[in-house]
Design a protein that fits this description.
Blueprint: H1 15-30, H2 32-47, E1 51-55, H3 58-68, E2 76-80, H4 85-93, E3 97-101, H5 112-124, E4 131-135, H6 144-154, E5 158-161, E6 169-170, E7 173-174, E8 181-185, E9 198-202, H7 205-215, H8 238-248, H9 251-268, E10 275-277, E11 284-285, E12 291-295, H10 300-310, E13 316-317, E14 333-334, H11 338-345, E15 346-349, H12 357-373
Parallel strand pairs: 2-3, 2-4, 3-14, 4-5, 5-8
Antiparallel strand pairs: 1-9, 6-7, 6-11, 8-9, 10-12, 12-15, 13-15
Length: 374
Amino acid sequence: MSEFKIKLVPPDIDVETLRQLPDLFAEVVTDPGKSLRRFEDLLCEKLGVSHALAVNSGTSALHLALLSLGIKAGDEVLCPSFTFAATINAISYVGATPVIIDSEPDTWNMNPEMVEQALKARFKVNKKPRALLLAHTYGMPAKLDEIVKICKAHEIPLIEDAAGSLGAQYKDRYLGTFGDVGIISFNYNKIITTGGGGMLLTNNPHLKDQASYLATQARSSAPYYVHNEVGYNYQMNGLASELGILQMESLDTRIAKKRLIFNNYRKAFSAYETINFQEEMPGFYSNRWLTTILFDWYDTAGSLKNYLEKNAVEARHLWNPMHRQPVFEHFPGYISGQSEKLFKHGLALPSGTGLTEAQQIRIIELVQHFLKTS
């Protein structure tokens, strides 16, 4: 079915926010940089980070993060298998080699034990990864104490892909602020959306300056145009920045709604021993960007997805692991089978902040009916 009455994570922009945009248009056109700086400063203040750079997508932010750290062709970058393709695409943009790491079962994120295993194996062939690119899956924090400790011990820069994790926290500190560089996405399906956009976060002013330079066509300081290296047109536009600013006031409310949606699903399905959730451990605070469920039987998720779609409800399989993708399957991988299990047994349910109580009740009733009759 091409049209769903209840979509997975549609953008949620209230009418009042949209009404304010025309009044801001003249100011944005006159001085777009002012809007960008306001949005960047707002993110810094909210997340407790020193520097931010507003760009046109989360993927662009990842690309800039790698470039700013000097990652280049021939380098290796540790990265997760259980993630969206953009994470590894960015590594490929700079010509580096992804070294793909499987998930651990607690948070579904990169397995620290397998990171250690991968490092030992790479060292044996005289390869030292130049960076570790960590993704926080579906808004759930990774095991950051362990990952950060590994990176520090081996002097490997850490990049956090917190694309869908705005507002999520690990031990009362926001995701995206633990690494040398972090990124946030403001894509249409994220908790805050600018239609398309992203933010690079760092406490290192040199990395921020380098990323900003590359994002604006790498124009050198001179009274005329001088370009000593290839640059990119990655800067966010001013109107998108204003849209982000207007929504940031409601971030905590949106997270509370996301967490309520998750808790409603968990409570409704608590009697079904065959259903499991991505649970928080002590010190972990997910923004519940997307509510996901796991079934004991691998064929249940696909059958339920088809059933929901026949009833005009959008659902989606979990990430198909990157080590299974034809474009990436030839890269080094340290695989346990955990991410494949998540893919085969898991399903994402509608989780948008605009989801009404009646709509969620409808979804729950459909799932319960499916389980009783299948």
